[in-house]
Amino acid sequence: MFEPRILIVSSKFGGGHYQAGEALAEGLRSMLPKDAQIRHCDYGSFFPKGTDFLMRTAYLKMVKNTPSIWGKIFKYTNTTHAENKYRNFVKGFRQKSFIHYIREMEPDIIVNTHFMSAGVLAELKRKGLIKVPLVTVVTDYVIHGMWIHPGIDLYIVGCRQVQEKLIEAGIKEESIMITGIPIRLEFEQDLDKEELRKKLGFDPNKTTILFMGGAYGPTSKATEIIKAINRLNPRLQLQFLIVAGKDEEYYQALKQSEKECLFPLKCLGYVNYVEELMAASDLLVSKGGALTISEALTLGLPILMFKPIPGQEDGNAEFVESTGGGMTVLSSEELTRVLQYLSQNPGILREMSKLAGSALPNCSSQKAARAIINLREKERVSKEQVIGG
Question: CA–CA separation, 383 vs 389, rounded Å?
Fold first, then answer.
């Protein structure tokens, strides 16, 4: 039997797509022999020098400063059958170096966690330039037409709602697998909440609220968040964690505001132990990113989605609300009211936690990996039967 050669193509455009690819690679490595070749590449690295950086910077500035424009772009490009100028632009963009990379590896299956590479590879397959099975992992809880392409052999999705929309768009049900969006295996652990709180220097008995999202998410204005917290009843037994991510300027602004908070507060920069912070918490306040949502729900952590970006984050927020494991809040005043209400009604917070924990399939990265391995094996057997006559 030939060693498996699996290529995962992602993009750092948006962050969550690449994280899903990394989690999927982790899941595949946990299930395949050590000699299996599993590569994970960033499709943006095949763009002309500097182009990917400019595109990512423009996107991040747009969603931070003019999110309504991104919402309009999302809606305008959401066509399931008609090819539009954007698709044609993407499909013709620097294919030669990408094709060379694929031919050098000779993968027996290619997996996409970004719609852009999925569209390019589907077009290459249509032209006969590649002849291997293609898998698309949809990394949101809402489907967009840019994910849907002829020539994709398998769609891996996070929930039933996305499966239903794909079927409506003409995709056969047997070509869709609900596994959950792949997340790192660390989020599948059983972690001790009280011990983790002690490790953080927190009171193990106080309700702990975690803010995440970075400089482009809900915690981008340090003073706004501190004011929202300080409007709460000071007699409430609460403590707060805020994660700033890699934005040093934002982190320093948080540290300056930290002393103004009327409740115990710990501000952190970039961390590689998010699963511990989530497991230590009772409630997450974040934007509507699908990977963060997946990680939180897997750990049974309810979510307040604060000012989700129009487009995919709106759809992700609607999905979370449909599970009962979270709510959407659109202003800092509403955030204060909802935090106050949930803090004073711990039974409701416990019920939300229970619903969050049952919202998604467990072991998503390994289930997605198994679906990919099964498709590869099916293709291998089919080829052997053709050769054997």
Answer: 10
Read off the DSSP letter of residue 2.
Answer: P
Instruction: Give residue-wise pLDDT tens across range 33-69.
Output: 999 999 999 998 888 777 777 877 777 778 777 878 8
Token readout for 266 is 């710990």
Query: Rounded to two decimals, what is the model's pTM?
Result: 0.90
Domain limits, the chain: 5-180+362-388, 186-357
CATH H-level superfamily of 5-180+362-388: Glycogen Phosphorylase B; (3.40.50.2000)
Q: Which residues pair with 41 in a beta bridge?
A: 9
Tell me, what amino acid is at 162?
V
Reading the block at residue 295, the tokens are 């990680």
CATH superfamily of 186-357: Glycogen Phosphorylase B; (3.40.50.2000)
Residue among 198, 217, 202 nearest 293 (CA): 217
CA distances from 19 to 11, 22, 135 (A): 9, 5, 17
pLDDT tens digits, one per residue of 269-309:
989 999 999 999 999 999 889 999 999 999 999 999 998 98
Q: How far apart are CA 226 and CA 263, in angstroms?
A: 10
Determine contact, residues 315/141, Cβ cutoff 8 Å: yes
**Between the CA atoms of 95, 100, 102 and 105, what dihedral angle is there, to the nearest 10 degrees?**
-170
Q: Interior CA angle at 337 toward 333 and 339, to 5°?
A: 115
